[in-house]
């Protein structure tokens, strides 16, 4: 049973009232405030104890405590106890960033039977003690303001319930390359229906076009054939080829994909969408390393076809090929061009092709003109093998690229080799192979506009976070896998699409979805449907609806992300974001701006040091004076100070750095063993 | 502008180099080498030239001779590209390149030619001794004459022209125009290095290196003085007790030290002795045979047994002829000259540069 609905009705009614008569919301009357020392991280600078005494006098605050670690188990238990004993209706925790512990304290509230949204976190560590370690008193004043703002905000906090929506157990996979195909298999096996939508006449994409693959030595076509055979045996997967994605509507759990297959128009209802649309190979411009100017300049893809179709002898245009120059980073890592990124797989692909040549034909010399060899992981074996086979590696720099010229029917390469002290080398070859990188597909704009997936500066589709949310997009329910996201090799492409498949399954498997209720909300009485909010909404979350005989805006709570862009454009102030209402924001400002009367003279006595010097460390942490006394006429290392003061060395390091920054101490060279820096007082 | 020759790698491999193409130019060899200088090109530059097959650059370089193969670079190479062995192979390649007859290259690359030459000389010596009808005294006298004429002939016809070629490749062609006084000023370098291997002392100061230097030093001195003792003091015919004992000590030193060197090659004790080529074996074995057979011949003379055991002299004479006509002009013996002259030329180039400034 959810504990979230204690005064839902009063909130709804009060919301409408606030707009006209204001402040008639059920204000929280019994608030608990906890101010955290963070083991000194906060309390060394912010006068936590004084603050907790001052806060105790605030209106509606029932409990005000300073605690060593608010996030510790024992403090959490105390909070639950307080909420129950004192019948608290809201809590404020002043500690670190909400990114760390919002959910920790929301759970404290839930355990105590309080609505988790009647909780506010105030960041007095990153925003006060860490940012203003040089001015502890100012840090304390700022913390005071922020905590008061937090208290004012929580007074207006509403008890909210998570939004629950039904989810279709079906997934649309856009693009039937190896990533999409492999993900489709897993999604189907996890009990979802999969619509695999492919633009081309055949499935398999780029992998079906590649020849021998590294590690296993299999042919790309064979791998695809095997996978496709498996797909055809799974009834839950419906494959559409020659299909075009026309339109996407709906939101997470309930998307409608309008797809046309030849002349037939289909509407597919899915709970989530996986985009695996892949990439295009970079097409060299005319004249780029002699491309199209000389017949003997081709791309790696063309060369791979040549290797595959040649037997016994490597022959191109009727000429036997005895020497090949591979030019790397064509269309990648352009510091001034469009593609600044490294395409990741091309070094390995080129070296693999060179090894394939050695295996199939004898006596072909290979020259690799590279900028850096990036055969990461197991692909390093390829590089070693190729060096062993006598391939010659020549390093050029972007600012001095190799020149390809045709002289007397010979293709001549001139290059400055950075490994040979920029010596200018020249040699002729029978064939020049341009190792081209990956670029976003030419139709990726079309896909991204239909699904509203943001793209990065590299024009590939963007994930939310490269490490923590690597396959999720900001559009809920739309996931990305494979190379539509950025250059990847086959292994990595399949890994990412399978990661997306399992993410999709976690949201669809229950059949229902829970979303945070921090979304836009419309005042039905004042809204006049001027469409301004709908026009600015980037998520298509606002649609008109008839209510009491007039048109008003309606927010689709499953699509809305609570970004707040609609609020400022509303001429009648009829739309706002839950938890960020005008009442809350305005009262926060009032709280912050209220005059702070803090006793700043508590540390008034100057610290007299034995030698008679006076060190003015008023308003600095107490430990600074202890360090200063210890360093009086002495130079000490951090371990020595640590022993003398009984303070941990990492804490001392932190303080010494700051003291150095503010000219209280300075380094005095290394100690005798040259193991530690010594510090002394700055004269 | 330099022209790449990818076939050079195959060529240099025949001189003993292997795996050097694995080099990815990290510079560890340069970092660990005690002889590398501030421009940080030694020995890495040579490896790069070999990979690209820049023959002109290698031909005009003295650097291969500046390396004493302590083996640090090979043991510290993260790619096992064996830079030390490449430098050794380049010395062999340079020896072949300096040799105007082209025989050096042939002997380095084809062991069959080497063995064929050795057998032909064996047949000639045995034929001369047993079918010419000359008396044993006359044969021994001719042996002494041969020694003198061989030294003069080989030097005049093969070694001197080769050193001039070396000078042309490394000094004249790179357009080092040093005045004559620089040639005189640098001359001391030639003799110091010829007799002492002074530069080797600049390598990492380890017990192995010190021992190797000392053994090599004694061997060079013993070899040169034995040459002097037999040719000019006529060791085999002299009646001077001092000269007789001197010859014994010198020849004994040669066969004892070469025995140590051979055992190091068999046991592969260090990087330098891990990759023995036929030319290395011929050199050390024949030097050993030279020492032990001359010792034995003089001993038999002293015991008055030389006439009954004349075959011992036959062996000695055969070894001497093979040594003087194959190993000295075309084999590893030449490193004695080229290395010293490399120091000399390097000094000339250095002094000339100073002069220009």
Instruction: Compute the number of structural domains of chain A.
Output: 5
Return the CATH class of the largest domain in chain A.
Answer: Alpha Beta
Flag low-confidence runs of chain A.
1-24, 602-613
Helicity level of chain B: 55-70%
Instruction: List the total number of helices of chain A.
Output: 20
The share of residues in extended strands of chain A comes to: 15-25%
Second-tier CATH architecture of the largest domain in chain A: 3-Layer(bba) Sandwich
Which secondary-structure class do the elements of chain B indicate?
A: mainly alpha
The counted number of beta strands of chain B is 1
State the helicity of chain A in percent bands. 25-40%
Shape label of chain A: flat
Main β-sheet description of chain B = none
Q: What topology, given as strand order, has the largest sheet of chain A?
A: 8-7-6-12-25
Annotation, overall tally of beta strands of chain A: 35
Q: How would you state the average pLDDT of chain B, rounded?
A: 92
User: What profile does the largest beta sheet of chain A have?
Assistant: 5 strands, parallel
Main structural class of chain A? alpha/beta
Shape of chain B: globular
Q: Roughly how many Å apart are the termini of chain B?
A: 27 Å
Q: Total helix count of chain B?
A: 16
Topology, element by element:
The complex is a heterodimer of chains A (683) and B (357).
Chain A: H1 8-21, E1 31-36, H2 48-55, E2 61-67, H3 73-86, E3 90-95, H4 98-111, E4 119-123, H5 125-129, H6 136-155, E5 163-166, E6 170-174, H7 178-189, E7 193-197, H8 205-209, H9 220-232, E8 237-240, E9 243-251, E10 254-261, E11 264-270, E12 272-275, E13 279-281, E14 297-299, H10 300-309, E15 315-316, E16 319-320, E17 323-330, H11 346-360, E18 365-370, H12 380-388, E19 392-395, E20 403-407, E21 410-417, E22 423-429, E23 431-436, E24 438-440, H13 444-451, E25 478-480, H14 490-508, E26 512-515, E27 520-522, H15 532-536, E28 542-547, E29 550-555, H16 566-569, E30 575-577, H17 582-593, E31 607-608, E32 614-615, H18 622-630, E33 636-637, H19 638-645, H20 649-661, E34 665-670, E35 677-681
Parallel strand pairs in A: 1-2, 1-3, 3-4, 6-7, 6-12, 7-8, 12-25, 14-23, 17-18, 17-23, 18-19
Antiparallel strand pairs in A: 5-26, 9-10, 10-11, 13-24, 15-16, 20-21, 21-22, 27-30, 28-29, 31-32, 33-35, 34-35
Helix pairs in contact in A: 3-4, 6-17, 7-9, 7-14, 10-11, 11-12
Chain B: E1 2-3, H1 8-13, H2 28-32, H3 44-52, H4 55-59, H5 72-76, H6 83-98, H7 103-109, H8 111-131, H9 136-172, H10 180-185, H11 187-196, H12 207-231, H13 241-267, H14 278-302, H15 310-330, H16 335-356
Helix pairs in contact in B: 6-7, 7-8, 8-15, 9-15, 9-16, 11-16, 12-13, 13-14, 14-15
């Amino acid at each position: 049973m959810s504990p979230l609905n204690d005064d839902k009705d009063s909130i709804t009614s009060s919301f409408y009232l606030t707009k006209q008569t204001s402040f008639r919301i059920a204000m929280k009357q019994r608030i608990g405030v906890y101010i955290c020392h963070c083991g000194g991280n906060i309390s060394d600078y912010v006068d936590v104890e004084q603050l907790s005494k001052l806060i105790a006098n605030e209106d509606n605050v029932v409990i005000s405590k300073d605690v060593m670690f608010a996030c510790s188990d024992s403090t959490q238990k105390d909070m639950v106890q307080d909420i129950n004993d004192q019948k608290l209706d809201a809590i404020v925790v002043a500690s670190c960033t909400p990114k760390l512990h919002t959910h920790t304290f929301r759970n404290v509230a839930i355990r105590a039977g309080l609505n988790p949204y009647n909780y506010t976190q105030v960041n007095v560590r990153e925003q006060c003690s860490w940012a203003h370690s040089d001015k502890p008193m100012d840090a304390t004043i700022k913390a005071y303001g922020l905590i008061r703002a937090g208290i004012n905000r929580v007074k207006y906090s509403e008890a909210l319930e998570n939004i629950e929506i039904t989810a279709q157990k079906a997934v649309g996979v856009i693009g039937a390359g190896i990533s999409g195909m492999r993900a489709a298999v897993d999604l189907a096996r996890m009990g979802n229906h999969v619509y695999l939508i492919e633009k081309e006449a055949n499935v398999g994409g780029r992998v079906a076009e590649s020849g021998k693959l590294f590690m296993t030595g299999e042919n790309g076509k064979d791998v695809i054939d095997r996978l496709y055979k498996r797909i055809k045996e799974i009834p839950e997967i419906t494959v559409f080829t020659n299909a075009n994605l026309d339109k996407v509507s709906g939101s997470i759990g309930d998307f409608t994909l309008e797809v046309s297959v030849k002349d037939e128009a289909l509407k597919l209802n899915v709970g989530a969408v996986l985009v695996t649309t892949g990439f295009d190979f970079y097409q060299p411009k005319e004249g780029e390393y002699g491309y199209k100017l000389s017949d003997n300049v081709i791309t790696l893809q063309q060369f791979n076809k040549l290797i595959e179709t040649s037997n016994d002898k490597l022959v191109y245009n009727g000429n036997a090929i005895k020497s090949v120059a591979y030019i790397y980073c064509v269309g990648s890592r352009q510091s001034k061009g469009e593609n600044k990124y490294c395409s990741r797989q091309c070094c390995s692909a080129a070296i693999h092709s060179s090894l394939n040549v050695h295996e199939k034909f004898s006596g072909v010399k290979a020259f690799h003109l590279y900028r850096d060899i990036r055969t990461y992981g197991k692909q390093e074996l390829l590089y070693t093998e190729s060096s062993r086979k006598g391939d010659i590696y020549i390093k050029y720099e972007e600012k001095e690229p190799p020149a390809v010229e045709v002289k007397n029917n010979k293709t001549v390469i001139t290059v400055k080799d950075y490994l040979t002290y920029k010596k200018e080398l020249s040699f002729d070859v029978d064939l020049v192979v341009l190792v081209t990188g990956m670029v976003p597909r030419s139709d990726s704009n079309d896909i991204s506009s239909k699904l509203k997936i943001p793209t990065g500066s590299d024009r590939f589709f963007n994930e939310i976070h490269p490490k923590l949310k690597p396959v999720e997009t900001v559009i809920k329910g739309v996931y990305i896998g494979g190379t539509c996201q950025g250059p990847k090799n086959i292994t990595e492409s399949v890994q990412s699409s399978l990661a997306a498949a399992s993410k999709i399954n976690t949201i669809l498997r229950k059949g229902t979805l829970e979303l945070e209720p921090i979304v836009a909300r419309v005042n039905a009485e004042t809204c006049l449907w001027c469409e301004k909010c709908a026009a600015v909404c980037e998520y298509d979350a606002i649609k008109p609806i008839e209510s009491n005989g007039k048109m008003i805006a309606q927010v689709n709570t499953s699509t809305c992300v609570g970004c707040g862009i609609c609020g400022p454009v509303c001429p009648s102030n009829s739309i706002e974001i839950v938890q960020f209402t005008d009442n809350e924001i305005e009262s926060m400002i009032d709280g912050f701006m209220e005059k702070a009367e803090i006793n700043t003279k508590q540390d008034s006595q100057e610290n007299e040091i034995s030698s008679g010097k006076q060190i003015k460390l008023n308003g600095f942490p107490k430990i600074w004076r202890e360090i200063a006394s210890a360093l009086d006429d002495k130079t000490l290392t951090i371990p020595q100070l640590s022993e003398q003061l009984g303070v941990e060395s990492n804490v001392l390091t932190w303080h010494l750095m700051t003291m150095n920054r503010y000219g209280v101490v300075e380094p005095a060279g290394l100690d005798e063993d040259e193991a530690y820096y010594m510090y002394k007082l700055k004269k | 502008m330099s022209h790449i020759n990818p076939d050079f790698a195959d060529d240099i491999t025949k001189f003993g180099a292997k795996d050097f193409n694995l080099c990815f130019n990290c510079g560890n060899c340069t970092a660990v080498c005690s002889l590398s200088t501030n421009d940080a090109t030694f020995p890495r530059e040579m490896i790069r030239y070999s990979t690209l097959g820049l023959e002109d650059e290698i031909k005009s370089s003295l650097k291969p001779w500046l390396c004493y193969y302590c083996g640090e670079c090979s043991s510290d190479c993260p790619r096992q590209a064996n830079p030390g062995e490449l430098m050794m192979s380049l010395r062999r390649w340079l020896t072949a390149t300096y040799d105007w007859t082209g025989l050096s290259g042939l002997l380095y690359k084809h062991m069959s030619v080497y063995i064929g030459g050795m057998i032909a000389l064996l047949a000639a010596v045995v034929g001369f001794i047993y079918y010419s009808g000359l008396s044993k005294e006359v044969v021994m006298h001719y042996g002494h004459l041969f020694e003198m004429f061989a030294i003069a002939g080989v030097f005049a016809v093969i070694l001197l022209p080769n050193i001039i070629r070396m000078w042309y490749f490394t000094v004249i062609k790179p357009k080092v125009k040093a005045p004559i006084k620089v040639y005189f000023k640098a001359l001391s370098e030639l003799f110091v290095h010829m007799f002492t291997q002074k530069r080797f002392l600049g390598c990492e100061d380890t017990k192995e290196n010190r021992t190797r230097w000392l053994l090599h030093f004694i061997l060079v001195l013993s070899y040169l003085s034995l040459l002097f003792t037999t040719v000019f003091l006529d060791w085999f015919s002299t009646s001077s007790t001092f000269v007789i004992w001197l010859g014994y000590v010198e020849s004994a030193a040669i066969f004892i030290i070469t025995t140590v060197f051979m055992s190091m090659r068999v046991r592969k004790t260090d990087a330098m002795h891990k990759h023995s080529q036929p030319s290395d074996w011929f050199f050390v074995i024949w030097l050993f045979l030279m020492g032990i057979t001359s010792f034995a011949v003089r001993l038999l003379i002293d015991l008055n047994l030389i006439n009954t055991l004349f075959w011992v002299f036959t062996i000695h004479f055969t070894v001497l002829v093979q040594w003087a006509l194959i190993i000295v002009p075309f084999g590893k013996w030449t490193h004695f000259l080229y290395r010293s002259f490399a120091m000399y030329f390097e000094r000339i180039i250095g002094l000339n540069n100073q002069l220009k400034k």
